[in-house]
Amino acid sequence: MKRRDLIRTLPALGALPLAAAPAGAAKARLRSAICAYSFREALKAKTMTYDDLVRLAVELSVDGLDLTVYWFPSMSADFLLPLRRLAYKSAVEIYSISIRSDMCRPTADLRQAEARQVSEWVDVAEKLGAGHIRVFGGTVPKGSTEEQAAGWAVEVLKRAADYSARKGVILGLENHGGITERADRILQIVKAVDSPWVGVNLDTGNFRSDSYAQVEKLAPYAVNVQLKADIRDAAGKPGPADWARLVAMLANNGYRGYVALEYEEKEDPATAVPRLIGKLRGLLKEYA
User: Fold this and answer.
1) Do 98 and 40 form a contact (C-beta atoms < 8 A)?
2) What is the DSSP secondary-structure string of 31-96?
3) What does the pLDDT look like over 101-135, one tens digit per residue?
4) Which of 20, 70, 159, 199 is deepest in the core (most CB within 10 A)?
5) Measured between alpha carbons, how far apart are the two ends of the chain, in Å?
6) Residue boundaries of the structural domains of the chain
7) CA nearest 26: which of 210, 189, 253, 217?
8) What's the DSSP call for residue 104?
């Protein structure tokens, strides 16, 4: 292809809706990250700050941070912009924030309010320089059907994505129980939204059963990945996750993005996270 022909194709490529990457179609590009939720107790107790997470990322040679926002002291620029500056000066990317949301709202007013709340966090992400937000689909309200709830989630995501698109922020719908308990339902919602600004936030440890098969289904649509130490097998029995198998799935699907360690086990994260990050970085280098 001639250079001028390639340049003509670029605007059109940018307008395409998010689609699955065919296996082996692209070289994977995998980057390491830490999810702030790994240090939830310390952040909650204020014995650790978000600045401390940036410094830890430097110490562990981690590329990025996924900042769970639950313990943000403020949504104001006075907090957000100095944090963004520290991350930039430390060569650490705050590439994602993780928020609470429930999109299975049974009334139009509640769905509008939910979309507005997501939009407020889009503004926060923009101030931090984050290009992604993890969102939850929520649970089916009492007296409603799963089909109804899925339709409401689609409506909220469409509204939120209309706004996030104007800010350059991708929304990743996480597999997190409720309406997003199964891969097939998640894909139904994401495909119905049909936006290049909505994809899947793939959490390897959140499925209740048949986890590897469900991860395989979602991997082509992943816009962010959270890797956990444990996983449930086909029968729902928990056990240590086969990280090599999971990372290979991402690589085989041409995933390009961050793989964030989200640590939730009993060992003190101060010792567990450095050890697991070393293992993760080795695997990402091997498979990318």
Assistant:
1) no
2) EEEEEGGGGHHHHHHTSS-HHHHHHHHHHTT--EEEEEGGG-S-SSHHHHHHHHHHHHHTT-EEEE
3) 999 999 999 999 999 999 999 999 999 999 999 99
4) 199
5) 27
6) 28-287
7) 253
8) -
For the cut 60, the answer to whether the pLDDT of residue 57 exceeds it is: yes
Annotation: CATH topology of 28-287: TIM Barrel (3.20.20)
Report DSSP letters for 226-279, one per residue.
EE-SEEE-TTS-EEE--HHHHHHHHHHTT-EEEEEE---SSS-HHHHHHHHHHH
How do 170-174 and 256-261 pair as beta strands?
A: unpaired
Find, among 213, 203, 220, the residue nearest to 256 by Cα: 220
The model's confidence at residue 5, banded by pLDDT at 50, 70 and 90, is very low
Q: Are 102 and 174 in contact (CB under 8 A)?
A: no
CA distance linking residue 246 with residue 250, whole number of Å: 7
Phi, psi of 250 (to 5 degrees): -65, -45
pTM above 0.70, yes or no: yes
| Other residues' Cβ atoms within 10 Å of the Cβ of residue 52 | 13
Residue range 139-184, pLDDT digits in tens: 999 999 999 999 999 999 999 999 999 999 999 999 999 999 999 9
